[in-house]
Design goal:
heterodimer, A: 205 residues, alpha+beta, Porin, eight-stranded antiparallel β-barrel, 3 helices, 15% helix, B: 501 residues, alpha/beta, Rossmann fold, 2 domains, seven-stranded parallel sheet, four-stranded mixed sheet, 12 helices, globular
Chain lengths: 205, 501
């Protein structure tokens, strides 16, 4: 349902943007995300951060922009048992995939040269966790809704090419504390968001 | 007639010798499931019958003492002189000493007097332990116990551990190898609690032993040790230890017989309990607290990571067994202990199970039947921490017991047919038998512990915590005296925690 809404949203925006003579640009980015649920991710994946890759589309005029981006973080670890703060890694592989889809409304502070920008918006994070020998009901496929803010700067490289770096903080409340077999419940960590630093290549005018 | 382990009254105090006749004995004979046999009456509780010591639950002529560290030998000598002791010796695998006292002196009184001395950490009589089981009729080959704890799915996650894990079975020995041994069987008298029977001497007899066909495999057994005969050949002359070992590690998926929990582990047979035949052959030692404590230390010192103790006794506490359990857990070994079978006998505290609640990494295991309800015999109390299938044949019939391979008792318990038909035993003929008891429940937990250790939980305390956290709660919500934290749930514990679920 959420996915269909997003598609509809984009389909409506593109002609509207064209008629308003706003620019439409595409981008690809690579980033590094540190999850807020530090202990939980560290227990399962060995670390609480990792790379994520994605891209999206941006509509804008001189000062305002609206972007739609999607990224993917995926890493394999192991299920665990925690006793007196000691993590015992079990011989059961566990793959965690987080796919955040962000809609960001932002503001550009300048139109020439180095262009600082800031914004915020809504995030939908698709969370998938699958493990060896799990029954289907034991795997997790769920989407959580949250919000984010970001800030960064863009530098034009050529007429149709620009680069940008930004930092994003997101908060995505989840329901992991409802499961007795969640390490996040144990650590009382209920946020799928985190802090992300990204580099972006933008194509378009 | 019905005799039980420990029912022998020896004619004199001499101890017997046993000699190897041949190491080239024939392999064991598998008689299969003894479903057509007449039902065997359950053995009475050993506390109900006379022992080699005329029914006294401890040895006469000696006590156990542990002096505080740094106590000078002269001071020790003075202290033991005060209780009329003659000599003192420290056996192997022990941090305590055996003090010899007058045969007519009361060991409990002597121990109490010695315990009052300022440099004595503890002193106690040498109490006798016994196996914790109620054997019963052989019938249908149905191992309901493994589906009851979802082992089929648990084995998907961890198929039987590996040979890296050594599980020590502290019991009556194990049918672990083929050999013919010569024993001398003198005449003796035995009581079934009502009548005393006189059995004739058999003289020197050659007794065949064989490895249990469904248990033995290449490199299966490691560091065997016999504290009853004081050698390295812990041959089972009872069948209890072999049955218990089967539940822990019976060869599985081999198209033979039955399955075991952790079927790839290596087994360390440590004999610390004497059987009737050990008594008839007059083994030099009996299954006293100090013998069991030495067995615990031996197992730990030789690499065992899991210790199964389907043994116990009622009576006074045993500081030396407590010490041994602490030694085990502090050296990385998990211990599973049968909670006891005396619920209907007044439900007394059973040792060493009663220590489990106070030592992380030691678990006392109660029994449930096929219906997953408290088995009628299973001792209860705050020390019970987990429940596992032990069988309940009162509720579930013969097949309500736990099925494993052990001896065909028709060839073992020849004394059960009375003095006229009494003859040499054979320990090379096997059958699949249903037993019930917390003795049968404890090895489920031992096998489970082996799987968890293989899975990555290496600390004994964490193994216990995982078992308890993932147990299926039974009875009143939370921990209770019947089921502890509940019925073991190996699959859930082996699967552990995920990020979200």
């Amino acid at each position: 349902m959420r996915r269909a809404s997003l598609v509809l949203f984009v389909l409506l925006l593109v002609p509207a943007a064209a008629s308003a003579q706003v620019s439409v640009r595409g981008f690809a980015d690579a980033g590094f995300m540190t999850f807020t649920a530090t202990d939980s991710f560290k227990a399962i994946l060995g670390k609480s951060s990792g790379p994520l890759y994605g891209g999206g589309i941006e509509f804008g005029e001189k000062q305002f922009f609206l972007s739609l981006g999607a990224r993917r973080f995926s890493r394999e670890g192991h299920r665990v048992f925690v006793f007196e703060n000691q993590v015992f890694t079990l011989n059961v592989k566990d793959r965690v995939t987080v796919t955040p889809v962000d809609v960001t409304f932002g503001f550009r502070f300048r139109s020439h040269g180095l262009v600082p920008f800031a914004g915020g918006g809504v995030s939908w994070s698709r969370f998938t966790e699958t493990s060896e020998h799990a029954e289907e009901t034991e795997n997790v496929h769920h989407t959580y809704t949250g919000g984010h803010v970001l800030g960064g700067a863009e530098v034009p490289l050529q007429r149709w090419l620009a680069a940008a770096v930004d930092a994003q903080w997101s908060a995505v409340p989840n329901d992991f504390d409802e499961s007795a077999t969640s390490v996040a419940k144990l650590y009382n960590e209920h946020d799928l968001g985190g802090f992300t630093v990204r580099a972006r290549i933008i194509i378009g005018r | 007639m019905t005799l039980a382990a420990g029912a022998v009254i020896a004619q004199d105090g001499a101890t017997g010798l046993r000699a190897i006749v041949s190491d080239l004995a024939l392999p064991g004979i598998d008689n299969g499931l003894r479903a057509s046999d007449a039902p065997r009456p359950p053995r009475p509780y050993p506390t109900d019958v006379a022992t080699r010591n005329n029914g006294i639950p401890y040895l006469r002529g000696s006590i156990v003492v542990k002096f505080r560290e740094g106590t000078a030998p002269l001071a020790q000598r003075i202290m033991i002189d005060r209780v009329g002791a003659s000599t003192m010796e420290t056996p192997s695998y022990a941090d305590f000493a055996i003090v010899n006292i007058d045969e007519n002196a009361d060991p409990e009184a002597a121990a109490a007097a010695l315990a009052q001395q300022p440099d004595v950490e503890y002193a106690q009589a040498r109490y006798l332990l016994h196996p914790m089981f109620v054997p019963n009729d052989p019938l249908y080959a149905q191992q309901w116990n493994f589906p009851a704890i979802d082992m089929e799915h648990a084995w998907d996650l961890n198929p039987g551990a590996t040979r890296d894990i050594i599980v020590a079975v502290l019991d009556s020995g194990v049918a672990y190898r083929s050999v013919v041994r010569r024993f001398n069987a003198p005449a003796f008298r035995a009581s079934n609690g009502v009548t005393i029977f006189s059995f004739p001497a058999l003289g020197d007899i050659d007794v065949p032993f064989a490895a249990a066909p469904d248990l033995a495999g290449p490199d299966r057994f490691v560091a065997p040790r016999d504290f009853i005969w004081n050698d390295n050949d812990p041959l089972d002359m009872d069948g209890h230890g072999t049955h218990v070992t089967g539940t822990i590690g019976q060869l599985t998926n081999n198209s033979v017989g039955v399955a075991g929990m952790a079927f790839n582990v290596r087994i360390m047979p440590v004999k610390v309990i004497d059987s009737l035949w050990d008594d008839i052959f007059r083994s030099p030692f009996e299954g006293t607290d100090d013998v069991v404590a030495r067995g615990v230390r031996y197992a730990v010192d030789n690499g065992a990571k899991v210790l199964n103790m389907s043994i116990g006794r009622s009576g006074p506490p045993s500081p030396l067994l407590q010490d041994a359990l602490l030694y085990a857990t502090s050296h990385g070994a998990f211990v599973s202990i049968a909670a006891g079978n005396d619920f209907e006998q007044g439900n007394p505290a059973e040792w060493p199970a009663a220590y489990a609640n106070s030592i992380q990494g030691v678990v006392a295991v109660g029994a449930v039947g096929r219906d997953k309800l408290h088995a009628y015999y299973s001792s209860t109390g705050p020390n019970v921490e987990l429940a596992a299938p032990g069988g309940n044949q009162r509720a579930g019939g013969t097949a309500g017991g736990i099925l494993q391979q052990t001896f065909d008792f028709n060839f073992v318990e020849t004394y059960q047919f009375g003095p006229s038909q009494y003859g040499p035993p054979r320990f090379d003929i096997f059958a699949y038998q249903f037993f019930q008891g917390t003795s049968m429940a404890a090895p489920h937990v031992s096998g489970f512990a082996a799987l968890l250790m293989q899975q990555g939980i290496t600390s004994p305390a964490a193994v216990e915590a995982a078992m308890e956290q993932f147990a299926t709660d039974l009875g009143p919500t939370g921990k209770d005296d019947q089921y502890g934290y509940g019925l073991i749930n190996p699959r859930a514990a082996l699967r552990g925690l995920g990020l979200a679920k």
